[in-house]
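In line with agreed milestones, the collection of sequences with tokenised folds has grown. A representative record is reproduced below.
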Amino acid sequence: MKAKIVITPKKAVLDPQGKTVQNALALMGYTGVGAVHVGKYLEIELTGADKDMASRQIAEACHKILSNPVIEDYRFEIE
């Protein structure tokens, strides 16, 4: 199994990297670009066969060490 995790800044949090990318796109002539949010993408290979247990463990890892739940949101899927 594989866990695919996406971590992004919360909507209310200032995202200086996203703002820099947004400005760079505008300077390069890309129009119609709204807000940009820069986050993290992780893939974790899982060796167990129990999808429910894996989901619980990934959720706990995301909340405790992979993200900062005060300023970041996360979502994941187990394949």
About this structure: DSSP finds two helices and three strands in the chain. Residues 51-66 form the longest helix (16 residues).
